[in-house]
Design a protein that fits this description.
Elements (H helix, E strand, L loop, with lengths): L1 H40 L5 H15 L3 H26 L2
Helix pairs in contact: 1-2, 1-3
Organism: Terrilactibacillus tamarindi
Protein name: DUF3899 domain-containing protein
Keywords: Membrane, Transmembrane, Transmembrane helix
Length: 92
């Protein structure tokens, strides 16, 4: 019975990991927009702070987010498959 519970836990964790890309990336993009907006606000107040915010915002904005989606999906699928391995011990 414990192998069945472990299998279900692996499935749930795998689904959460697969879905995490769709939760985390929009939050990071929103933080990027806030950084770029803050850089525009501080443009005439503190030039060095504005430059730092622009560098951070553009660096995060230039990241290939499809690779993050792909990585979380692959890791989640591996965890999901481990649930089937645990389920095979239930029927052994």
């Amino acid at each position: 019975m414990i192998s069945f519970i472990i299998a279900i836990l692996f499935w749930v964790i795998g689904i959460v990991v697969m879905a995490s890309g769709y939760v985390v990336v929009p939050k990071i993009k929103e933080a990027t927009r806030k950084l770029l907006h803050r850089a525009e606000e501080n443009k005439f107040k503190d030039n060095s702070e504005s430059i730092a915010y622009q560098i951070e915002g553009k660096l995060v904005d230039s990241m290939p987010w499809y690779s993050y989606y792909l990585l979380t999906f692959i890791i989640g699928m591996v965890i999901f498959v481990l649930g089937f391995v645990a389920l095979s011990f239930h029927y052994r």
